[in-house]
Design goal:
Its EC number is 7.2.2.10. Keywords: ATP-binding, Calcium, Calcium transport, Calmodulin-binding, Cell membrane, Ion transport, Magnesium, Membrane, Metal-binding, Nucleotide-binding, Phosphoprotein, Translocase, Transmembrane, Transmembrane helix, Transport. This is Calcium-transporting ATPase. With 1277 residues, the protein is α/β, with parallel strands linked by helices. Among the domains are: 2-73 and 200-365, Calcium-transporting ATPase, cytoplasmic transduction domain A (Distorted Sandwich), CATH 2.70.150.10; 478-498 and 721-868, Rossmann fold, CATH 3.40.50; 509-718, Calcium-transporting ATPase, cytoplasmic domain N (3-Layer(aba) Sandwich), CATH 3.40.1110.10; 1129-1276, no CATH class. Strand 14 and strand 15 (608-614) form a beta hairpin. The longest helix has 42 residues, at 870-911. The N and C termini lie far apart (90 Å).
């Protein structure tokens, strides 16, 4: 009560609680409440102290007063994880925990002194005396000390150092991992902050329309709602132009709800404006809005106590909260809300909380709000291609590492047991407490081998590569919302792009016009050339029948262009009014937006807009219409001709106008807009006027209103192609990416723009279809999309004009689900409208327009193009491929280190008394190859060379044969050097003659021998890191090196750290200082890595068998060939060489098919059959074959030389239809020969192959198909 009193004391006649309770009502109940308690809409505005027309004053003090009274339009963010929590999570790695436990045990045992401790020196002396000097395999217990007695005792007293060093190394690994996680989360929060600040909403303040950041909106603001908006606050609708809202996220209703001040004025945050426009007064913001309340209950924001619900228990609490909300809430039909709907409400529009990566919440949309969950069918976006390949590879490497680690532990323990309990002194062949130390040391070495072998750096590498790429892509105008989309773009094989704004500048101007039966092709009409009637109708219709938020501002300085605000097509029309010397603002003042009687707003289905106004002169009403010229003209029965005379406009006149005006405009690449009107008068008037006398007109019946209109003008709007787009499309084509244009413009305009862009080129046989023809070709008689028919169209399709959003969705879905190519296509799609959302979601990568795109489109997208430019998509492709290459570089480097480190540790443990690399040293190597290498190699900048090769493909091996060659080659060199140093180092390295480190036990003091091995290994690894920057066999490994300062800095830091570790590491790192000559040997071995790399490059990669390439993704299943008969006109026009103008995709026959065919077929069919039946084929329709059939036909024709000719061909033609082939049995050669001869001559027969899932049956069918269509080549040629 005190709080409410405080609210009222701030000077408002309504409290926050009252407004919240009002927003819980719907329909008639809400209207009654507004009328009874607030005196209607105007009374509510008065209580909120706001002007329903001019809005709030622009006053910082007034806005702050409202924020204090009603709250801010923000949701308190979930606090970020603390650094300690991130470190704790990093410590949960299983291998680190095992290593930690072993290190603790080792540390404890180092301080434990058994009662018979003095016996240790005697055992050490015995081991030293009985060990042969020639090798390291002689007697002596593994626990014995090397050297003299005092040295062994000293090592025992200092035995705690290794355990402590391992603990410190673990701490370093944990801290580095936590630091990386903290940096990653910071980047995500920075990305979200950018998203939040970029999303704005239109409000009216001091009578001016302003776009402000949604967090600045306050209760009492007059907000302008338009098509495609995602509402950021709750509000009461004051004025509506056919406004329809999608409330499915809140109520679960799929139907769009028509909103109006008279029927249902309640607007809720998180809902979408699907059609129309309007104005609302904001009544609730932030956590006090309906969406904010539900988000709070769902645990997306802080709880009442201020603690974030981020644990797994909060997820259960969320479910309980949803249940409680469902019990208390009801939708507009009085039914309780379901849990799914309420969860989806949390996906509504807010300045959303910054969420750490593991918080169980939806992904963020472009406005900082969580995104609605993707449909279940969108499995392709749940796990990217690269992630799948890396997961498979990590499992394979992990298995190998586990086996080697277990073998290492087993060998060390067995060796110690043999030396102690079998070959040792008889009096010592019993278990002693100090023996536990040896077992623990063996486990430590084995676990360390596992730490190195298991590629735990892979997730870090891909995360770093993606986050780094995302950060850099923002500078290239790509705002990435889903990390996986960045990598997926590297595999893109097809891009379905919009035209307007993406391929073109989206700065539109009217350059041609048809008015008063005159075609102004090179100039615009002057005001004096138009008659009085046409003047008024033309200018008034353009001014009123357009969005009032669309404006064209005259240039303020000489030489600058007009500023276009809002819809660019409408801006072009308003610019045409200004060019006539008139002011559209004058007509808008005459007809303010609230005075408009009815508005049918433009959408992709209508492709037109209509506005109904009341005539000031003579009474009655006038309906203005504008839209696609063909659609508008088809509704007209009259036209304003010369001098404004009304003349009939029949079908003949329409066709003539289309041929003489619209088609020439479209051929010039212009968008054609038709303008029309219809008058409703009280009494009979002119022929084109509709009398109202005694007629009750239904103003909601759009179908009847738009009939019988009068055409006014056709305007040709120029939207120039962006200068950089043709080159960008050429880059895509060189990179193996097919670019398709999907547009709402007519076919001629679309074809012209596509030709200018390079999508269509002279001499190439590609398809350009309209939406109607596309649907007729791809759907069956029931209107259902037939994938087989679609597969005959899309490979050749380049332009889809007059396309509906459903057409774009069908095309994208069909390409993705097609099986007519070897690898599944990876499709990227651009979209800007609300209805583009399904296609954006279905695509592998959805690009939304940041400038022209609606909030709904942005919410459904993966990447937002902040400049709406196609060239930004090309940059996204480069970054995606760069991510792929960065991971491949890291893998090439890491696997080389893995192979060498694991091998040297295992062989060293087997051949000597101890591993040459101590646990702490291997942890340092692990740090180099995981964290530091991932930072260095994952931060390479992309180059144009990435666009000179084809996409990797979904089944392409992650590790190519070139990479395997590099891994094996460098591994062999490093192992040869290390084993040479291990077994023969004392023979050629100065000062090592007396050490024989391989004969010393684990407790021995650090030696220069093992230090040189460790140092040489690290230096070879460092120089090989430079080689690893190239994965495609390039010779110049230094190219672009200094363009990556991160790589250079990390490389130098690692080198300096290695020098310090060797010289000053001492017992902590089990190293001994080296002499200058020894350092020179180490550096020479390291530098030779660069020369050895050049030698490896010289060896061709194809010397390795293909199975050496590994890390493949999941192979996509191929389809069984089924042929059918389709009557496609292009077959007749091309003589049967193509089907529907579509060439067969590539799919080579398997070797087994070819071998079987060679054994079955000795038929010489080609030239003789062509000559024998040439006249017949010219007069008949050739066989209808699917794309797969044609492809197999061509492939087989190239591979096989047929040796036997067909006999009695003329007799076979008169025989009956071809019988179905039973795939249960492999066809006999004689049957196939006879059947093939009949297939050549039966031109309109349908071959039906009935198959099932049995593999052998499918093979038989494939053999038969290849045989039949190989022998059917003559019908095609």
């Amino acid at each position: 009560m005190a709080k409410e009193a405080s609210t009222n004391a701030r000077g408002f006649d309504v409290s926050r609680k009252e407004l919240c309770s009002l927003m819980e009502l719907r329909g008639a109940a809400a209207l009654e409440k507004i009328a009874a308690d607030y005196g209607g809409h105007e009374g509510l505005c008065a209580k909120l102290q706001t002007d329903p027309v001019n809005g709030l004053p622009i006053s910082a003090a007034e806005l702050e007063r409202r924020r204090n009274a009603f709250g801010r339009n923000e949701i308190p963010p979930v606090p970020p994880k603390s650094f300690l929590r991130l470190a704790w999570e990093a410590l949960q790695d299983v291998t680190l925990l095992i290593l930690l436990a072993a290190a603790v045990i080792s540390l404890v045992l180092s301080f434990y002194k058994p009662p018979n401790r003095d016996e240790f020196s005697a055992l050490s002396a015995h081991v030293a005396a009985t060990t042969p000097s020639s090798d390291g395999g002689g007697g002596g217990g593994g626990g014995g000390g090397g050297g003299d007695q005092s040295s062994g005792l000293t090592e025992q007293h200092a035995g705690w150092i290794e355990g402590a060093a391992i603990l410190i190394a673990i701490i370093v690994v944990v801290l580095v991992t936590a630091l990386n996680d903290w940096s990653k989360e910071k980047q995500f929060r920075g990305l979200q902050c950018k998203i939040e600040t970029e999303h704005k909403f239109s409000v009216i303040r001091d009578g001016k329309a302003l776009d402000i950041v949604i967090s600045e909106m306050v209760v009492g603001d007059i907000a302008r709602v338009k098509y495609g908006d995602l509402l950021p606050t709750d509000g009461i609708l004051l004025q509506s132009n056919d406004l329809k809202i999608d409330e499915s996220t809140l109520t679960g209703e799929s139907d769009h709800i028509r909103k109006s001040p008279e029927t249902d004025p309640i607007l809720l945050s998180g809902t979408h404006a699907m059609e129309g426009s309007g104005r609302m007064v904001v009544t609730a913001v932030g956590v006090h809005s309906q969406t904010g309340i539900i988000m709070t209950l769902l645990g997306v924001t802080k709880s009442a106590g201020g603690e974030a619900q981020t644990s797994s228990s909060s997820t259960q609490n969320t479910q309980n909260s949803v249940s409680s909300i469902a019990a208390k809430s009801a939708n507009r039909n009085g039914q309780p809300l379901n849990g799914d709907s309420l969860k989806a409400v949390a996906n509504g529009q807010m300045v959303a909380a910054s969420m750490p990566a593991d918080v169980p919440s939806p992904p963020l949309n472009s406005n900082g709000a969580p995104v609605a969950p993707m449909p279940v069918e969108d499995n392709s976006k749940t796990k990217s291609v690269l992630q799948g390949k890396l997961s498979n590879l990590a499992v394979q490497i992990g298995y190998i590492g586990s086996v080697v680690a277990a073998a290492t532990v087993l060998v060390l323990i067995v060796k110690f047991s043999l030396h102690k309990y079998v070959w040792g002194p008889e009096e010592k062949r019993h278990f002693e407490a100090k023996d536990i130390t040896n077992f623990v040391d063996s486990i430590i070495i084995g676990v360390t081998v596992l730490v190195i072998a298991v590629p735990e750096g892979l997730p870090l590498a891909i995360t770093l590569a993606l986050t780094y790429s995302v950060k850099k892509m923002m500078k290239d105008n790509n705002l990435v919302r889903h990390l996986a989309a960045c990598e997926t773009m590297g595999n893109a094989t097809s891009i379905c792009s919009d035209k307007t704004g993406t391929l073109t500048t989206n700065r539109m101007t009217v350059v041609q016009s048809f008015v008063n039966s005159r075609f102004y092709k090179d100039n615009s009409p002057s005001w004096d050339e138009l008659d009085l009637r046409t003047r008024d109708i033309l200018v008034e219709g353009i001014s009123v029948n357009s969005g009032y938020n669309t404006q064209v501002m005259l240039p303020t300085t000489q030489g600058t262009q007009k500023t276009q605000i809002g819809n660019k097509t409408e801006c072009a029309l308003l610019g045409f009014v200004l060019d006539l010397g008139q002011s559209y603002e004058e007509f808008r003042r005459k007809f303010p937006e609230e005075s408009l009687l009815k508005v049918f707003t433009f959408n992709s289905v209508r492709k037109s807009m209509m506005t109904l106004i009341r005539r000031n002169e003579g009474g009655g009403f006038r309906l203005y219409a504008k839209g696609a010229s063909e659609i508008i003209l088809s509704r007209c029965t009259y036209i304003l001709g010369a001098e404004g005379r009304v003349t009939p406009f029949g079908e003949r006149q329409q066709r003539e106008l289309i041929q003489t005006v619209i088609e020439p405009m479209a051929s010039d690449g212009l968008r054609t807009i038709g303008l029309a009107y219809k008058d409703y008068v009280p009494v009979n008037g002119e022929p084109n006027e509709f009398p109202l006398d005694g007629v009750d007109v239904n103003w909601d019946d759009e179908e009847s209103l738009r009939e019988g209109m009068t055409a006014v003008a056709v305007l040709g709007i120029q939207d120039p192609v962006r200068p950089e787009v043709p080159e960008a499309i050429a880059k895509c084509q060189r990179a193996g990416i097919t670019v398709r244009m999907v547009t709402g413009d007519n076919i001629n305009t679309a074809r012209s723009i596509a030709t200018q862009c390079g999508i269509l080129r002279p001499g190439e046989d590609f398809l350009a279809l309209e939406g109607k023809e596309f649907n007729s070709r791809t759907r069956d008689s029931d209107g259902v999309v037939d994938q087989r028919k679609l597969d005959q169209i899309w490979p050749k399709l380049r332009v889809l004009a007059r396309a509906q959003p459903t057409d774009k969705y069908v095309l994208v879905k069909g390409i993705i689900e097609s099986k007519c190519t070897k690898n599944r296509e990876v499709v990227a799609v651009t979209g800007d409208g609300t209805n583009d959302a399904p296609a954006l979601k279905k695509a592998d990568v959805g690009f939304a327009m940041g400038i022209a795109g609606t909030d709904v489109a942005k919410e459904a997208s993966d990447i937002i193009l902040t400049d709406d430019n196609f060239t930004s998509i090309v940059k996204a492709v480069m970054w995606g491929r760069n991510v792929y290459d960065s991971i491949a570089k890291f893998l090439q480097f890491q696997l080389t280190v893995n192979v060498v480190a694991v091998t040297i540790a295992f062989v060293g443990a087997c051949a000597t008394k101890d591993s040459p690399l101590r646990a702490v040293q291997m942890l340092w190597v692990n740090l180099i190859m995981d964290t530091l290498a991932s930072l260095a190699l994952a931060t390479e900048m992309p180059t144009e060379d990435l666009l000179k090769r084809k996409p990797y493909g979904r089944t392409k091996s992650l590790i190519s044969r070139t990479m395997v060659k590099n891994i094996i080659g460098h591994g062999i060199y490093q192992l040869a050097v290390l084993f040479g140093l291990l077994f023969f180092g004392e023979k050629f390295i100065p000062d090592l003659e007396q050490e024989r480190a391989r004969e010393l036990p684990h407790e021995a003091a650090p030696t220069m021998h093992f230090t040189i091995i460790f140092n040489t290994f690290v230096l070879m690894t460092l120089f090989n890191e430079i080689n690893s920057r190239k994965i495609h066999g390039e010779r110049n490994v230094f190219k672009g090196l200094f363009a990556n300062p991160i790589f250079c800095a990390i490389w130098i830091i690692t080198l300096v750290s290695q020098i310090l570790i060797v010289e000053f590491g001492g017992r902590w790192f089990s190293t001994a200082p080296l002499t200058a000559i020894q350092w020179s040997y180490c550096f020479l071995f390291g530098l030779f890595e660069l020369i050895w790399g050049q030698i490896i490059v010289t060896i061709p990669s194809n010397v390795l068998p293909k199975f050496f390439a590994f890390g493949r993704g999941e192979v996509q299943p191929t389809s069984i060939l089924v042929t059918g008969e389709y009557d496609i006109p292009e077959i007749r026009q091309t003589g049967g060489r193509e089907i529907g103008g579509v060439p067969a995709p590539s799919a080579a026959a398997r070797p087994g098919q070819i071998l079987w065919l060679l054994g079955l077929t000795r038929l010489q069919t080609q030239m003789r059959v062509v000559k024998a039946f040439q006249s017949t084929l010219q007069n008949s329709h050739p066989s209808s074959l699917t794309l797969q059939a044609g492809d197999r036909l061509r492939q087989s024709y190239r591979r096989l030389r047929i040796a036997k000719e067909i006999e009695r061909a003329n007799e076979l033609r008169s025989r009956g239809p071809i019988r179905a082939v039973d795939p249960e049995k492999k066809p006999k050669s004689a049957d196939l020969n006879a059947l093939s001869r009949r297939c050549l001559l039966c031109t309109r027969q349908e071959i039906v192959l009935v198959t099932n899932q049995n593999h052998q049956q499918q093979k038989n069918v494939d053999y038969f198909n290849t045989f039949i269509y190989n022998n059917g080549m003559n019908t095609m040629t």
